[in-house]
Amino acid sequence: MSEQTKTQAQLLQEKLALKRKNLGQELPDSTIGEADAYCEQYKCFLDNAKTEREAVDTIEQMAKDKGFVLYEQGKQYQPGDRVYYINRRKAVILAVMGKRSLAEGVRIAAAHIDSPRLDLKPQPLYEDGEMALFKTHYYGGIKKYQWTAMPLSLHGRVVLGDGTFVDVKLGEDEGDPVFCVTDLLPHLANEQMKRTLNEGIKGEELNILVGSRPFKDDKASELCKLNILRLLHEKYGMTEADFLSAELELVPTYKAKDVGFDRSLIGSYGQDDRVCAYTALTATLECKDPEHTAVTVLTDKEEIGSDGNTGLNSAYLQYFIQSLADAEGVPYYQVLSHSQCLSADVNAAFDPTWPDVMDPRNCARINYGVVVTKYTGARGKSGTSDASAEFVGQIRRLFDEKGVKWQIGELGKVDAGGGGTVAMFIAALNVDVVDVGVPVLSMHAPFEVVSKIDVYMAHNAFSAFFADGQ
């Protein structure tokens, strides 16, 4: 339709109304191809980084490959220098030094690398019904029934009695054994099926089947348990007491996969929030000679409130910024007060099977680009920082100018629930911050789904943020 044949209302609507469009229709095939290619390495990252420790190890190697070196406290770095700092092997900070003084602030991207899972209790191994099992305590918000009758792998670290440690990763390689939580067959589950969905599987019923063959001896007791202890001692040098000083986690065994006939989606465990961690990471690795120092913090413990010394409710990010500032002779509070942050975390995508919990005018959608979330929290915006109009306006202009396709999002209808991110902990440092991330289907499930286009736009968003000279 030509401009001459359009009605006044049509012209006015084009000029004034907000338009949102599926990027699969809007983007050229070349850009969609770039998104698909980018996500191939992202899938590899997901497979290699199923726990926060493994994520740190993977990130450290990727950083070294791009010329990053371990940060030296007290050293004054020059523009273009690339450093990283690791906090207790569970969180990592990367920085690319900028041309401008730190007094003008830094640009921060903050994502988390922990995900919901099943943790072993301190004394997990027991025998019942001539089977050996592990007791677990779930980590983060999960639907417990989703973790039954599926293959799980065991990951983590065991500190032995002599102070040495052994890392465990069992169930990922071809030929490895796997583990599982058993469930009742439908024919005998009449009483279980009367429970509410939330109580269909209770926390104390998330027990991991780990063996069934007894040790061949008629004089000892709990022979199935004893046989597992024997195998653990032979493979890892462990005794039962070593569980007391272990961090062992159960996660799904399967690898990241393309989803759909058109391969437009990625399904995997742990995409909340490793999808934002990876996209922020790659933007940092590609960042060269920024105006402002670019800082990416990939943190732990977000799924349980960010508490603990590896979560962003601790001071380690603040201490890192302070150390940079001290080396330049700038008050660290001045650096933070002039800094800006993209809190890199996911948002819930509209699911047509479950539309009632979403406000369709304000929810994120698959294939509509990276999501800007002004506030999270619950009900009366409790537990959020609520970004200012000025900062949202700045990010909006930046993304539009740089061709980053983005959408606005909200975490469900008012009173439907809610959630939080690390944004409020960054805001507590007097930093301007807004949430920016990828929309996710089946969030917190063992198999989460995202769009390849949205993943690529998240990478472009963080790249544009680091490159911004304003």
UniProtKB/TrEMBL annotation:
A UniProt-annotated Pfam family: Peptidase_M18
Co-factor requirement: Zn(2+)
InterPro entries: Peptidase_M18, Peptidase_M18_dom2
GO MF: aminopeptidase activity; metallopeptidase activity; zinc ion binding
GO-annotated cellular components: cytoplasm
SUPFAM superfamilies: Aminopeptidase/glucanase lid domain, Zn-dependent exopeptidases
Family statement drawn from the similarity comment of this UniProt entry: Belongs to the peptidase M18 family.
Name of the protein this chain belongs to: M18 family aminopeptidase
